[in-house]
Structures are given as C-alpha cells and as structure tokens.
TrEMBL record:
Composition bias, Basic residues: 52-61
Compositional bias annotation for Basic and acidic residues: 62-74
Record region (Disordered): 52-74
Full protein name: Uncharacterized protein
Length: 74
C-alpha cells in the first residue's frame, strides 16, 4: 500500500507522524540515560537529534513555541 501513495504524501506522512514520534523517543532515551549516568556523549547526541527533528517536523504533531506577548501587541 505504501508504494501506491504519491511521493509527496509519503514525505508528508514521514514528517508529520514519524519525525515527532522519533523526536519524542530520542528525548525520552536521552533523559533516561542522563538520569542514570549523568551528561555524556550519547545523551547530548540524542537531545541534539530531538531538537533537529523538532525543527523539521510538520503537521498536527509539530512542537510549537508559545507566542511572545510583545510580538502580539504590535
């Protein structure tokens, strides 16, 4: 069935569903490792991967930053 979907729809699905889930998983793993062993290379890489994926995520599961009240007043 995956093959029948258009290339753009497959890419959107990966970015809208797969990337947020992977970012969440990387964050959970990084937090668990850091709690157990302290900050180390693996925990830093997993957090960096989470931030990378959060910036590239699209769709309904995208992580949104709260609006800046100063920007809204203008």
């Amino acid at each position: 069935m995956w093959v029948l979907l258009s290339r753009h729809l497959r890419m959107w699905l990966l970015l809208a569903v797969g990337a947020p889930l992977l970012a969440w998983l990387l964050g959970r793993i990084g937090d668990a490792v850091e709690r157990r062993r302290g900050p180390n290379t693996f925990s830093r890489l997993s957090r960096r991967g989470r931030r990378f994926l959060q910036r590239r995520t699209r769709g309904p599961l995208r992580h949104r930053e709260p609006a800046d009240p100063d920007q809204l007043a203008r």
